[in-house]
Amino acid sequence: MKKITLFVFAFFIISVISAQHCDRAFSAANYSVSHTNKAYESNNTEHVREWTEKAMETFSEVEQITADCGCDAVSELAYQGYEACDRAQGENLYERSHFFAKRAKEKAKAMIIALSKCTNIPLSDIEARRNVGGEPLASENSYDASTVQNDLDVQQEELLRKQQELIEQQKILKKQLEDQAKQVAVLKQQRASELIQQKRIKVNAEVALAEIQKNFEKLATALNCPEALKAARISFIHTIGALEKESLGDTKSYYTLKLNEIIDKFNVSFSECASSW
């Protein structure tokens, strides 16, 4: 029986200490309510940012205190309030920053109510101990009802914003795909035109090289230079498949190199023949 009594007493002491520790969050929580109220009542983006920046500090303080003392619901609402203020900071349009200030304000109110539940301190006592300005807290039931409607409004507005963003992204993606398709078509047309030029070069270059080779053979025969006749047997035929795999510049380089090869071999061969005359 003594053990049970000691356990109950110890549990009571721990609960009281925990509640007292969480009670420290009321001051910061009240400031969060006040700052978010002023942010919501601001009529320009600069003032919204000013007050939401201050609210971020108090939300962060509440989150840290209540996370340590076990008020997880309060800690989560403090995080959500901080996140809403952070979103308000990043918006350039007043309507958007005001929208997130409204969300932060609602989270601050919900945080006070959750803190009251966690510490078993009535809302009336919380109102009496508030040391910062701000609008009075509504009753829990009336607040819960308004919160549901506000949350629905917030969710609907957020969904509409995301839907508009998706529409804009789809437009951008469609435009990018159209531009890519145009670029592909232009590249295909350019490549087709280039291949036609390559085929024309193939025909003319191979005819010219064959004529050069024929004249060298005649000269080798006239000079009785068999080494030069052997050198004349150089293949310079280029396939259509090879043309399709290379650029116009590559094709020109191929026939230029073949011409140089024929000339170099004939020069060497004739030099050898000339040394024996």
Structural write-up:
This protein has 10 helices and no strands. The protein is mainly alpha-helical. The protein folds into 2 domains: about 1-135, IL-4 antagonist (De novo design) like domain (Four Helix Bundle (Hemerythrin (Met), subunit A), Up-down Bundle), CATH 1.20.120; about 195-275, no CATH class. Helix 4 runs antiparallel to helix 5 (about 95-120). The longest helix is centred in the middle third of the chain and has 83 residues, at about 140-220. It is rod-shaped, with a radius of gyration of 43 Å.
Total individual domains? 2
Q: Helix amount, in percent?
A: over 70%
Estimated radius of gyration: 43 Å
Global structural class: mainly alpha
CATH class (first level) name of the largest domain = Mainly Alpha
Shape: rod-shaped
Q: What would you give as the CATH superfamily of the largest domain?
A: IL-4 antagonist (De novo design) like domain
Measure the end-to-end span.
133 Å
Low-confidence stretches: 1-19, 131-145
Task: Summarize this structure as a short list of keywords or feature phrases.
mainly alpha; 277 residues; 10 helices; Four Helix Bundle (Hemerythrin (Met), subunit A); 2 domains; disordered N terminus
How do you describe this structure in short?
This protein is 86% helix and 0% strand. The chain is mostly helical.
Which secondary structure elements does this structure contain, and how are they paired or packed?
Blueprint: H1 2-23, H2 25-41, H3 45-69, H4 72-90, H5 94-119, H6 123-129, H7 140-222, H8 226-231, H9 240-245, H10 248-275
Helix pairs in contact: 1-3, 2-3, 2-5, 3-4, 3-5, 4-5, 5-7, 7-10
